[in-house]
Design a protein that fits this description.
Layout (H helix, E strand, L loop, with lengths): L2 H25 L2 E2 L2 E2 L3 H9 L3 H20 L1
Antiparallel strand pairs: 1-2
């Protein structure tokens, strides 16, 4: 496997996980004993007060955007 194939496989997994979370929150599914929250709220809670992590996420999205539009 090349570096590009591994990178795209990781992003495909992230995309599928986000889609699953969105569907689970929309349908009101339960995982264990708690309801699945909205992905945006989960991300907001995870990034709250961590400026450096927010910067990493933004840079990651910029990297993805550059590579998607460069194709």
């Amino acid at each position: 496997m090349t570096w590009a194939a591994v990178t795209y496989a990781i992003w495909a997994f992230v995309t599928l996980a986000a889609l699953f979370l969105w569907l689970a929150s929309w349908r009101g599914w339960r995982v264990g004993r708690s309801c699945v929250g909205r992905p945006s709220a989960l991300l907001r809670d995870a990034l709250g007060g961590r400026t450096w992590l927010r910067v990493v996420v933004v840079l990651g999205w910029v990297w993805v955007g550059v590579h998607v539009f460069a194709r």
